[in-house]
Amino acid sequence: MRPTTSCPPLFPFLHFHGFSRRTFLHDGYVISYTSRILLNQCKIMRVSRYSNVPPGATKLLTARSKRGILNARSLNTTPLPTATGISHDKQKKGGVNQYVPPQTGLVAILPHSWIPYAELIRLDKPAGTYYLFFPCAFSTLLAATMTPAVSMLQVLGTTGLFFSGALIMRGAGCAINDLWDRNLDPHVERTKFRPIARGAISPGKAVIFTGTQLLAGLGILLQFPSQCLWYGIPSLLLVGSYPLAKRVTYYPQAVLGLTFSWGAIMGFPALGIELVTHPNALMATAALYSSCVSWTVLYDMIYAHMDIKDDITAGIKSIALRHEHNTKTVLSGLAVVQVALLAAAGLAAGAGPIFFVGSCGSAALTLGIMIRRVKLKSTQSCWWWFKNGCLLTGGGISMGMLFEYLAHIHEDYGTDDRKVSHKTINLDQQIESIE
After folding, report:
1. Would you say residue 244 lies in a domain?
2. Which residues pair with 2 in a beta bridge?
3. Signal peptide location in the record (predicted)?
């Protein structure tokens, strides 16, 4: 690569727009060390074909290093041929050493000052919200099968409130996690550009923002029946414990499971079923909650494999490290436990064949496919299955429960035992409302 003393004839527009004479040409790249227009920063552009550049073109190409993209500002309507940034080449060679803001999706269109807070609550990564929401949906639909007198509108409204709560509380949990890990995240490739780790949000501002989210979550909780408040508050004790667990045990995913699965308890009181006075509902809740805990440990074990090398360096513990060499055996065991406990929840709730075929069958099928196909050594494969597995497994279980509920309200199941059970629960609810 040789320096030129002036812009070559093929690039008169560079000189026209004030590029300095310290310009290098090599393999289709134009590298300017100094530029009156580009504020003395090293800029790299690539033009696909020299011959396609029209002489005297009045288009200024600027490579914006902070965003890793090229913007084209034109003085006329004639477009210049392809020009692309090379930030992706840098990523392929040795990782990213500079923060790149989101270029697509909802976060990309937000005001610049909002982006760090949107990233803090993982607004651009909704999989965590889905994982927190599905246990709530499971318990609501399963409770609805035990109280078919509950209207479809009430079930939908309750589910919508749970989704709003999951969105808010998942964001609060992520912020708490990042506050705990602010000194560890800079040493992990995947987390080093999180807002607190890179200094975009101070710990003090993050605490205030988290407090605001917790108050919003409390506001959602107060929309449910009063007994839900007493069932929901204990979950706050678990929210802050997961980051601490990563420092003291190889099984922090178990703590995460206890936290993320709490919604499996909430659906029953949300529809007016008092767990203390209804043994069948209590057994169904316990089995469903345990099933969701197994599911959480399963999918987060796959997720933890993405950071396994950095976790060793940073001193972070995880179940993926503890069982690195027999992960799929552990995953298979967790899947069996999850499906078995899900079936037990259905039995306690008096569910019919639609539940066992739809919910339990789809869970077994999707979990089996995921465990077989996921490549634990591949970050991309682990992320794909983590991101999409929630929709495959969670969606299948939810659809099975929904059709089971529809069968109950249309009285497709007519056994005397179920009718007596439903009448008993409905009578107890009426007595409680009178009292």
Report:
1. yes
2. 25
3. none
Q: Residue 138 corresponds to which tokens in the numbers above?
A: 């499971």
Q: What per-residue string of b and e applies to 126-153 under the rule 16 or more CB within 10 Å gives b?
A: ebbbbbbbbbbbbbbbbbbbbbbebeee
User: pLDDT-based confidence at 69, cuts 50/70/90?
Assistant: very low
Torsion of CA 193, 199, 200, 206, to 10 degrees: 100
Residue 76 has pLDDT above 70, yes or no: no
Q: Are 86 and 68 in contact (CB under 8 A)?
A: no
What's the one-letter identity of residue 230? W
The first and second tokens of residue 248, run together, are: 């003291």
- Gyration radius from the chain CA atoms: 28
- Which phi and psi (to 5°) does residue 316 adopt? -90, 135
Range of the domain at 347: 107-415
Residue at 260 is within a domain: yes
Cα separation, 348 vs 285, whole angstroms? 9
Q: Does pLDDT of 64 surpass 80?
A: no
- Distance CA(203)–CA(178), nearest Å, equals 9
What is the spatial order of strands in the sheet that 29-32 belongs to? 2-4, 23-26, 29-32, 43-46
| pLDDT mean over 402-412 | 86
Of 19, 58, 73, 26, the residue nearest 42 (C-alpha): 19
Backbone angles phi, psi at 100, to 5 degrees: -120, 115
Q: Beta 2-4 vs 43-46: how paired, if at all?
A: unpaired
Give CA–CA dist 247/302, Å, rounded: 19
Residue 127 lies in a domain: yes
CATH number of the domain encompassing residue 182: 1.10.357.140
The tokens of 43 are what?
């800029």
Q: Are 68 and 76 in contact (CB under 8 A)?
A: no
- Contact assessment for residue 119 and residue 107, using Cβ atoms and an 8 Å cutoff: yes
Is 133 part of any domain?
yes
> Interhelix angle for 127-146 vs 252-260, to 10°?
50
Kindly tell me the burial class for residue 399, based on how many C-beta atoms sit within 10 Å of its own C-beta (0-12, 13-18, 19 or more). Answer: middle
Residue reference for tokens 């989210």: 213
Q: Residue 147 has what pLDDT?
A: 86
DSSP character string of 399-415: HHHHHHHHHHHTT----
> How many domains are contained in the chain?
1
Q: Which residues contact 415 (CB under 8 A, 6 or more apart)?
A: none
Per-residue pLDDT tens digits for 391-401: 999 999 999 99
Beta bridge partners of 29: 26, 46
